[in-house]
Structures are given as C-alpha cells and as structure tokens.
Amino acid sequence: MTPAAPSAGCESEALPVLRERGQREVFCGLTGIVWLHRKIQDAFFLVIGSRTCAHLIQSAAGVMVFAEPRFATAIMEERDLAGLADANEELDRVVDRLLERRPDIKLLFLVGSCPSEVIKLDLSRAAQRLSVKHQPNVRVLNYSGSGIETTFTQGEDACLAALVPEAPSAGDDSLPSLLVVGALPDIVEDQFRRLFAELGIGAVDFFPPRRAGAIPAIGPNTCVLLAQPFLGDTARALEERGAKRLPALFPFGAEGTTEWLKAAADAWGIPEMEFRRVVAPHRERAKRALSRHKETLAGLSVFFFPDSQLEPPLARFLAEELGMRPIEIGTPYLNRDLLSEELKRLPPGAVLSEGQHAERQLDRCRAARPDLVVCGLGLANPLEAEGLTTKWSIELVFSPVHGFDQAGDLAALFARPFARRAVLKV
Amino acid sequence: MQLTVWTYEGPPHVGAMRIATAMKGLHYVLHAPQGDTYADLLFTMIERRDARPPVTYTTFQARDLGGDTAELFKTAAREAYERFKPEAMIVGASCTAELIQDDPGGLARALALPIPVIALDLPSYQKKENWGASETFYQLVRTFAPKVEGAAPRTPGERPRCNILGPTALGFRHRDDVAEVKRLLSRLGVDVNVTAPLEATPSDLARLADADVNVVLYAEIADVAARWLERTHGQKTIRTVPIGHNATREFITEIAALTGVDPAAVLDDANARLPWWSRSVDSNYLTGKRVFIFGDATHAIAAARVASEELGFEVVGLGSYAREFGREVRAAAEKLGLTALITDDYLAVEQAISELQPELVLGTQMERHIAKRLGIGCAVISAPAHVQDYPARYSPQMGFEGANVLFDTWVHPLVMGLEEHLLAMFREDFEFNDAAGASHLASVHPSAPQGTPEVTASEIVWSKEAEAELTKIPFFVRGKARRNAERFAAEHGLALIQLETLYDAKSHFAR
Ligand code: SF4
User: Which listed residue (B121, B282, B429, B434) is catalytic?
Assistant: First the structure.
C-alpha cells in the first residue's frame, strides 16, 4: 500500500492520476443483479456464493422485497467445500429445483462469487452442462460478479460480455445497425429510440434486450454506441464479433447527449443541418431544465469517492454544464480507452484517482472540505455528521439519468442536498 | 447448497461487527474482499449511525491471491492500530478469507501490537449472524473478565449490583430497552455495574465480575457469555425477558428476590397502561384476532405470550429463524397448542402465512413485506428490520412502557373497535368505497390482495349479484370473503358463486 505519486497520463493535457491501494469501500459486481434482473425480464440470476453474497444483494436491493425475485443465492455450506464433485451435483440439484419452480425463466445466469472462485468451481463448465440438460427451454450462461474480480458496475460488464456470444451473427451483407449498449431504464430506451428514428438512423437495437429471446444480431455492419462507461469487456467482445465502436461522450447532460447522438449521426452520414434541426428542441429543453439547478450548483466544489466508473463523465457534466468545480474524481478503475473523449474535457485542477485507500482519501476529502461529496452509502451519514454535504452515488446508478429528458433529473440529484440544507432550520 | 431468496441473518462476521460497532475502544480488522464492505451501510443507513463502524477490511483482490494476502492483512492491521489507537482489537476472516486460510490471529500476533488482540474463529459456512455476535461477545468477556484467584468477594450489605448483557448495534430497539430496564433497576435500588456490549469499552468488560447478577436481555447474544460468567464468577443470571406486562412483573420479582430488595413499589407502576387499555370496552373487538408471529427467539416467544395473555388474540402460528433456540420456541408454541415453524426459508414462512390467513402478522421486515402483499396488517417485532423500524422517538419493547408501546403498535394495524361498527353501518356510503381506505390504515392497500392466487380456484365463476354484493363488503375483509366463498364453492363442488353461496360461506366460516 505504497502511496503512488501522481503520475502524468499518456496525453500531455491529461489530468494527473493518483493510483492508490488500500481499503476499498465499494460494492462487488454482484450488486448489478439488482438492476439487471429488472431489465432482462425472463432472466434469472443465481449467485453461487456464501451467506455474505446473499446478504449483500438483499442489503443493496434495500426495500425491494418481491415475493420471489428473479435472483437468488445458492449458499455453499461446509459439505460443498469438502469435495468439488459434490458441489457440482449440488448445483445441478439446486438448478433443477429452481427451474421446476420457475418455468417462466428462459435465461439463467450462474453468477460466480469470491468463494466459488477461490475453490475454483468451474461455472462455465457447469453452465454448459446445464444448458444441454435444460435445452431448449432454458439457456444457461455464467459470469463473475465476485469482489475479487469485479467492482460494482463491472458486474454488468461481465454479464453483458457473457451475453454477447449468444447474439446471432449478422453477415457482411446485412444492413448497418446501431447497437446501444448498457442497461437503461425502458423509458430512456424509448426516448432514444424516438430520437434515432427522427434522425433517420435505422435499425436500432438495445443491449441487453428486454427479453432473452430478443438478442440482436451482431456483425461487421453493427455500430456500437456505449451508454455506460464501464463496459470495457463487453465492448471488446462486441468488437471481436466485428462490430465497430463509435467513440463518444457519454449521454449525460445536454452536451453529453448531443455528442453521443452526433457520433451515431455521423456514422450514418446525417447532414449537420438535419442533425441540428432534430436535436435542437430536445437540447433546448434539457438546457432549460439544467438552468434552474445551475443557479444552485455553479461555483461549488465536488469530491467523488470511487464507486461506479461513472465519475469521470459525471464530473465533466457537472463542470461543463453546471459550473461545478471537481476537486478529486475517484474511480474504481480508469478505462482510458472508453473514456478518451471524456478525459479531454475534464477541467484542469482536478485530480483523477484510481483505486482506493479509503482512510487516506477521507483525509484528503476532509482537508479539501468540498461543498459536495459524492460517495457510497457506508460513508454518507458519517460525512454528513462531520458537516459535509453528500450525495449517495448509488442513486446515480439506480435512477434514470441518461439523455436529454433526464438531464434535469440528474442535476437535481446533485442539487437536492443543497435544497434540503437550505430549507432545514434544525 | 441452500437455495436462498432472502435471508433473516447475515454471515457471522456481521454479528461480530454488531459487537464491535456497539462497543467503544474496540477495532475489528476483517480479512475480506471489497464487496463485503457493504456491511457498513447496515449501520450507517439502516441504523443511521453517524460514524463508520470501527472496521478495517483488507479488501484483497484476485491478483493478491497466492501471494501477499497475508502481508496485506498485516499492513491493514498495523495501519488500523496506528490510525485508530483502539484499546483492543478483534481480528478474523470473512467467508472468502476463511478459504484462503491466512490465519489472521497468528498474523496479528506477529505484529506484536501493544494492545490485546483477540482472534475470532467464525465458521462462515456453518454459522450465522447471531451466532457470530454471541461468539464474539463470549470471546471478549472471557478475555477481559478472567477468573482472578483470591478476588475479594462483594461485601455484604453493599447495594446490589447487576450487569445488563446483550444489547448490540443494529438490535431491534436495544437502545430504548436498555434505558427502560435501567429505569426499572434504579427504582428497585439495584445499581448497574456494566452494560455490554452496547457502549462498553474493553476495560468495562474487565469489571464484569464485580456484580451479583447478570441480566440477559437477548439470549441470542449474551446467553453463552452469561453461562460462562455464571461458571467462572458464580454470578446469578436472570433470563426472564421483561417484554409485556406480566413478564415485566416477573422480571422485577425475580431480580428483587435475588438481590433482596422490595419490589412492591415498582410492581405497581402508574404508567403501566396495558392492562386497562386491554380491558377497556373498545378492546373487545381484539378478542380472538388471529395473529401470526415470527422473529428471533427472544421476541417471538415474548410476543406470543403478550398476544395471547395480554391482548386476547388467538395465536395461529409461531415460529423463529433462530435454530439455536428451536427448543425454547417449540416449547412456547406447544403451550399454545401449536407446532412451531423453525426455518430460515422465507418462502416457507410466506406459505404458512398465506395458508393461515391471519388478521395480524407480528414479524420481521420480511413478514412485513409478506403481510403487505397479502393485504394483512403487520407490526415489526424483531430484527432484521428496516430503517423505519429504528425510530427517533423513545420506543422500547421492554418494561411497562414497552408494554404500552406493544399495545399501541400491535393494535394500530387493526381497525379500531368503534370504527369497525361504524364501517359496517355506513358501508354503502360513498366514503367507504374502494378508494377510500380507513384514515389510519396507511400501510394496508385498499385493493384486494394480489398475492394469493393459490387459493383462488380459477374455474369458479362469480354471478353478477354475488360480485356486486362483494363490493359492498368493507375492503379490509373483502379479500377474505372472496377467498372463503371460493373455498366454500370448491369444497362443495359449486362452479358458480351465487348471492346465496356468499352468505352460505359466511355462515360456514363464521367463528
Ligand atoms: S465480495 Fe465476494 S464474498 Fe463478498 S459479497 Fe461480493 S462476491 Fe460475495
């Protein structure tokens, strides 16, 4: 845990990056199940893990107790650890029972955890075996959401990357298509769909699909537009299938959304004038929604603890469109490739930090006394008690925040803590 | 492997965290991967604690495995000591670290820190949260309150003293129970020597032997430690849990007998309102209300007694997720002519509730969700609980004030007696249509419960008249009337429910 000196990145104009190792106060990739299972409506997520894993998902899911959610944990017990053959048999038994009970399931993800990985339980073989056994009704896939391999949103990346091979192939001669990648709320998907249609961008698909059977075809004429910055493995898997990724800003705020759409419009050869004509009213509406919050937020400083990898695009949005001043932009992992457009637009003076040493970062945060701290649920109340104003980062992942019509909502998430402070007289 | 949808208890290291977080001057270094830090939010969000739990996680990653995870642990422990300067440290492994066998205890000893370091061995693949809390507390008590040969006995004639054992962080109303029990004890003239683990330091634990009696408020946490204190220091133990009016009186009598004080003045507390509230005429309608009870052993057993003896409910189901106390729960159930439901399978509990169709559910947050789905009133009586069950107001479960609280919170989800008559009288008025729920029934959704398709025989049809009649029945009993009619029809081989069927069913199921 040696503190790494800030080192300059590859681009000359890039911000210094502080790399740290130490206690990381972040969720593991299992957490993604909370939103992924809502998105793919006939998929079931079965974690092969411990009581800790089950408890984590339940705690992250908070009050969302459904009668029988489409996720569960196969909790390993002492006897499963004794011999691996037993563990496989046990897993088959659990899956049989589950599928019998839930005939509505079309796609089953076996989700690896730290314990299953440490004992080297081979879930990809198990998935193959179970797929054969339960075909054609259920397809069984696997990915890792373990805390030793993945941080929070990386669970979605691993899940989507596991889904890519399921996509049918689109040949060389197929029409160009746009694939928007990253789990988005349905309402946001529909808004984007309408915008793309207005722009004249044809054949738009979203990934993951809402139903397991509706996985779009992928091929050399597929253009990929990432809606989330944490999808490195998924992007790579899609590129291996011949798809082309369109580098762009991420669709946060009026500017981010405009440039994100522009990347697709350019790939489709939409004339500049036409693009502006279509986008202008939406963009204006977004700007109007932002202006109110700008009054609250302009000039205030913000400090990001690492959480979802959304931090760099959000910092760009807060700085460019709301006039905030990022002090430290913590991210669990910095994917320079996917963030190439974003990093260029981060304001000078901010520090990017990758990884975490929670105690030292807290020291830096206290010393900087930012106007707003964006952090996880474990840190928020303690920091509030120290007199800092905080925003729970998990809301940025769980709420609809992408696109023009959510730009105001996204800004509101950051403005709300100040509005509350302003009204409270206690 | 056990297929689990929702769990009542976390892993055992979360139990250890509950002890560490409750105490002062104790730090926990936990060998665990990053995702396990979610446990902090249980304390900072659900319990609204204003400080982080005193826990350092090593957060090792895959790339550390097979190499320097041990070194990582030592660095974390050393840094934690330097930063937090605790009086003592507990060290241990979470489920994943247990598999890599780094021996946190040995590693911590090798650091030769100038404070006591206690190694916890909490088998994650066998045990659960409450066991982990109990074991941690026991290990701490053993370490800090050892037998001292030739220790001076308590001088006769000294004011009697007791310890209060069991309250933890994230406990259900532990904060207020402690305050209430302390008030009882002080009125009795019994001094409190140490309360632990809540608010105790390791050096407070060293004074545990200096008391006559140990009061065990929550057996799940403190029974093992109390037994050890009994054996080692010859202290007496009070296991009667003062939840409910009668149990509170027994608790007072018992402690008075053990310490030789006069209980008379304390037994008749002018603020003990439960008996009169329960005898008053408006409470008549509570008689025989069917209640289902589920929780940890302490609260479930106590609730069953209060419900049946002090509120006149009919307990139709009693159970607990605490297998360690299965025997005690079974005995309590038998007294009521029931077979206890001992399970940590949420789906089994849900099934039991939907089969029994109680009018009130007393349970954990899980049963609250079940009850909500089934359109049944519910009060939370036990951990695990959500943030709304950690109230700002004083709201103990124990003592006479606790009994008052039980009366209010359990009766609240039911319709008030007088109001029930009014509803029946005016049921055809427009105010009592579907959309207008009773003003105090915020938690009960006025629409028919959707969660009970298993009792609905789909081939049975309702006649227009019967369907219309059904809408005239107040919403809070309509679901039951519908189910009863359908059950009645199914049992009698009727494919069509007529107006008459509805009333036949009513008389058939009338109690
Ligand atoms: S960090 Fe590992 S052990 Fe902990 S909850 Fe996540 S997958 Fe399970």
Answer: B282
Distance CA(B178)–CA(B398), nearest Å, equals 8
Q: Give B473's pLDDT tier (boundaries 50, 70, 90).
A: confident
User: pLDDT tens for residues B36-63?
Assistant: 999 999 999 999 999 999 999 999 999 9
Structural contact between residues B379 and B409, judged by C-beta atoms closer than 8 angstroms: yes
Nearest-CA residue for ligand 1 atom 3 is A114
pLDDT band at B418 (very low <50, low <70, confident <90, very high): low
- Residue B456 belongs to a domain: no
| From B59, B347, B373, residue closest to A24, measured CB to CB | B59
Whole-angstrom Cα distance, residue A122 to residue B157?
A: 69
Q: Is residue B68 part of a domain?
A: yes
The total of structural domains in chain B comes to 4
pTM of the model: 0.89
- Whether B249 and B319 map to the same domain: the answer is no
Domain membership of residue B477 as a residue range: 461-510
> Which of B233, B267, B301 is the C-terminal boundary of a domain?
B267
Q: Is A49 in the pocket of ligand 1 (CB under 6 A)?
A: yes
Whole-complex ipTM: 0.93
pLDDT of residue B390: 95
For A200: left if phi > 0, alpha if psi spans -120 to 50, otherwise beta; the answer is left
Minimum CA–CA partner of A67 in chain B: B370
CA of B323 to the centre of ligand 1 (A): 25
- B10: nearest CB among A1, A55, A149: A55
- Considering only CA atoms, which of B122, B347, B11 is closest in space to residue A57? B11
Q: Are residues B291 and B366 in the same domain?
A: yes
Inter-chain contact A76–B125, Cβ cutoff 8 Å? Answer: yes
> Within a domain: residue B347?
yes
Same domain for B262 and B293, yes or no, is no
A vs B: CB pairs below 8 A: 187
Model pLDDT for residues B391-400, shown as the tens digit of each residue: 999 999 999 9
Quote the CA–CA distance of B116 and B109 in Å, as a whole number. 9
**CB–CB contact B6 A65 (8 Å):** yes
Residue A158 CB less than 6 A away from ligand 1 = no
The rounded radius of gyration (Å) of the Cα atoms in chain B is: 26
The tens digit of pLDDT for each residue in A374-418 reads 999 899 999 999 999 999 998 899 889 999 999 999 999 999 999
CA distance A194 to A178: 14
Pocket test for ligand 1, best of B36, B38, B59, B61 (most atoms within 8 A of CB): B36
Cα dihedral: B494, B495, B500, B502 (round 10): 90
B7 part of a folded domain: no
- Measured between CA atoms, how close is B81 to chain A, in angstroms? 13
Chosen from A21, A55, A66 to mutate, greatest number of chain B CBs within 10 A? A55
Q: Alpha-carbon distance B499 to B504, whole Å?
A: 9
DSSP string, B4-69: ESS-SS--HHHHHHHHHHHSSSEEEEEE--GGGGGHHHIIIIIS--SS--SEEE----GGGTTTTH
DSSP B362-406: EE-HHHHHHHHHHT-EEEE-SSS--GGGS-SS---SBHHHHHHHH
Domain harbouring B229, CATH code? 3.40.50.1980
pLDDT score for A13 = 55
Classified as helix, coil or strand, B242 is: coil
Active site residue B191: no
